[in-house]
Amino acid sequence: MKPTRVSLLDGGSLAIDGHKIYWNRGPAGDIRFPVYAVLVEHDEGLFVYDAGFGLEHMQQFVPQDHPIQSPEQTLPAQLAKVGYEPDDVTHLILSHLHIDHCGEANLFPRATVVCHEKEYEQAQHPELFERGSYGAVRYFAPGLVKDWQELPPDVDTDYMPEFQLLHGDVEFAPGVWLYETLGHSAGHYSMLVELAGRRPMLFTGDAAMTPKNLEMMVVGGFHLDPVAGTRSLQRLKDLATEHDAELFFSHSMPEFETWKKAPEWYE
User: Fold this and answer.
1) Are the CB atoms for 228 and 182 separated by under 8 Å?
2) Does the annotation mark 244 as catalytic?
3) What is the pTM of this model?
4) Whole-angstrom Cα distance, residue 94 to residue 74?
5) Tens of pLDDT, residues 57-88
6) Are the beta carbons of 206 and 188 closer than 8 angstroms?
7) How far apart (Å, rounded) are the C-alpha atoms in residues 236 and 242?
């Protein structure tokens, strides 16, 4: 049996106001944060958790988030560091469908897209304030958003990748758990990966962008349901305690700078 191992794929960085990271708390002013994907090499397949942002999309539609992404920080370049290419990926697990978590999902047309069933539904009928956040879905699943979003003329409006829709907590593969952490979006999954040689790794997704979200019990400023989001903060604390897991936050630069990244592995 092939041992599971994990590599972090550096996807560049964005900068947003502190009130969007810490709701009603701040501080004000831009905070630059990392965006990354998680590669899980598993006996049952090759999984990628989240797909970062697409630089061109961000530059065109969300330039105020100040995207920085070098050619080396694209997902194909990051995968090449560990000897893979996008066609090797069997499953693309998306914590949720916001622009900085599925922005390069179009690079994996052969992969099955895994997400929460509520997130799949929300992308088809988002609230008005959410529409920009779901804008990148059109590049890998235009058939999901064609009823509410204008699509480029060269896009096949009927194209849809294969989706695997989940609900509740799921052991996606032996030792790879997806835990419901709702609130930031309608259907959000955090991921826990068990490894033979270290503590489990618990990837929070945007349920907790930084350690400070947990310390203050304050959700991010962009959310669908702050009550559910606050409960998910507590759930992450409980999961970390229950599994003696190390937390890997989605958007915290100080921690990210200390973590091992491709071509290195956690195993």
Assistant:
1) yes
2) no
3) 0.97
4) 17
5) 999 999 999 999 999 999 999 999 999 999 99
6) yes
7) 10
